[in-house]
Here is the input.
Amino acid sequence: MTESLREAVDCQISDQTLSLSAQEMTRYIKDLAVFYGAKDIGVTPLQPYHVYSHIGRGTGDYGETLPVEHAYAIVFTVEMDFEMVGTSPYLPTSMETGKQYVEAARVAVQLAAAIRFLGYPARAHIDGNYRVIAPLVARDAGLGEIGRMTLLMTPMEGPRVRLGVVTTDLALIPDARKPDQAVIDFCTICEKCARVCPSRSIPFGPREEVDGALRWKLNPDTCFRYWAVVGTDCARCMSVCPYSHPDSFSHNLIRWGIARSGAFRRFALMMDDLFYGKKPRPKLGPGWVDH
Ligand code: SF4
Ligand code: SF4
Here is the structure.
């Protein structure tokens, strides 16, 4: 499905231009993205480190160098279903991944088309045709922090999201990055994803300096090799993460405490281990799917 959208990421720009203030335009574009199906949405100036150096998959010639084409990136999340993700590493989790990649692609392609219709260049970045590193763009647009499993950790769904991006020259008001020390502290003491990872691809211990920045570094080769063995995209790390719990009153109360107190973070982790286990097992999916 996303393959059929790959050619639609960039098309002709309207010769009529709509002029609004950057503030009005930003509000309109964000509301439009939510209307199309985005959950959270942010804007950031596009930086050289957001952009892949060369074309890999997708449209264009393999190996060609990529310029920083546009001034801004609009980035949004779509939520993955908690129950389907909980079945990981079995097939229902991959069904959910596929569904949400399509959702993110649909929203991004529609949003980029709408911006071009307003008279401004815009390109959608979708599964199989990304030219930007979506988690870095999302972090800089204030949508979350990068956690131990190296995915974006959003405040409400944790890593249980997929990302879509539209880059554009439409003048927009950027959002501020929101460094989240609570997520870094929680990931430092938690290590649950590293413990359950079947391929041992997620590091234990504190963040280390990699290419001049403090971060955890996943081993993508061993992770991908496990995907090939199991025949799905695994996602055990995402499914066991305490930040992935559903949007409910009790979990939101815990999120509130985690964001505010180091002592509460330790208590919440103890409770998570007690209720869900230090190495939670895959769950059964909804009745209609059978893994
Ligand atoms: S499972 Fe724990 S260590 Fe891993 S990303 Fe989630 S909170 Fe961080
Ligand atoms: S997807 Fe699976 S193999 Fe890859 S890092 Fe996560 S838990 Fe490990």
